[in-house]
Each structure stands twice: as structure tokens, then as C-alpha cells.
Amino acid sequence: MPIRIYVCTTCKTPDDPSPERAGARLFKSLHEVTQTHQSDVIIEGVECLSVCKRPCTIAFADQNKWTYIYGDFTADDSAEQILACASLYAHAADGLIPWKERPDALKKGVIARLPASLNSSRLPEAQQ
Q1: How far apart are CA 61 and CA 95, in angstroms?
Q2: Which residues contact 52 (CB under 8 A, 6 or more apart)?
Q3: Does residue 121 carry a pLDDT above 80?
């Protein structure tokens, strides 16, 4: 089952001369790389991940795994590192990626790690 990489397409970076937002460019770059390499990821653009102070922002998510949110990517040259880390995430049973194994950009860019229960289609019922 493929994992999802959510990409904030509304991220913009200061002093970026491009008329296209940096997040949209990162989304396109990731999508292009996955088209040229066989990959078990789904790249999904989202309107906002609410991490505006740390553009460009992505999230790795999969049911029954921790979700990671990362920021501080460059729009035009981060796709390979993101996909390398996505492969580590895909092969980790619980989604936990050892810090030492992450590409450098993903060591520094961690914003949050969310419990797997938030991704589950059925949350456990509250105990009474």
C-alpha cells in the first residue's frame, strides 16, 4: 500500500522571484520525480498545512503509522531527499524513522510527529 506525501502548495518563501509559489513548485517537482522512478508514494497537494513560518512544508502519512511534518525545504532541489526519506518511512513498520538515517534536510526540518491513532480509520472507543 503506498504512503502519502502531502505537500503544502500555498507555501511561499520570502524574496522568491518566481510568480509560482514555492510549495506548488515543490509539489510539481515531487510529482515529476515519482513519474520517472517507480515509487510507492502518492503525492497529494493540499491548500495549507498551517506552517507558514517554515516553508516549504510536507507531511508523510500512512494508516497505522506515525505522521511526520517537515518544513524548510527548497522548492527546486529537495525532491530526491524527500523521496529517499519517504522510502525509509514506507519500510518502517510504525513509521518511526531513526534520526541518524534521515537525509540532512529531514533531520533539521522536523516540525511535528503525530500518533498513528490519528490516521486510523477507526479510533479506539473511549474506555469507561
Answers
A1: 8
A2: 11
A3: no
- Rounded to the nearest 5°, which phi and psi values hold at 102? -75, 145
- Burial of residue 25, with CB atoms counted within 10 A of its CB: 0-12 exposed, 13-18 middle, 19 or more buried: buried
The whole-angstrom distance between residue 103's C-alpha and the CA centroid of its chain comes to 13
Cα separation, 55 vs 52, whole angstroms: 6
Asked if 21 and 30 touch (Cβ cutoff 8 Å), the reply is: no
Q: Which domains does the chain have, with CATH numbers?
A: 3-118 (3.40.30.10)
Confidence of residue 17 (pLDDT cuts 50, 70, 90): confident
Write the DSSP assignment of 46-59 as a string of letters: ES--S-TTS-S-EE
Query: How many other β-carbons are positioned within 10 Å of the β-carbon of residue 10?
Result: 17
Helix ranges (H only) for 18-117 are 22-36, 79-91, 104-108
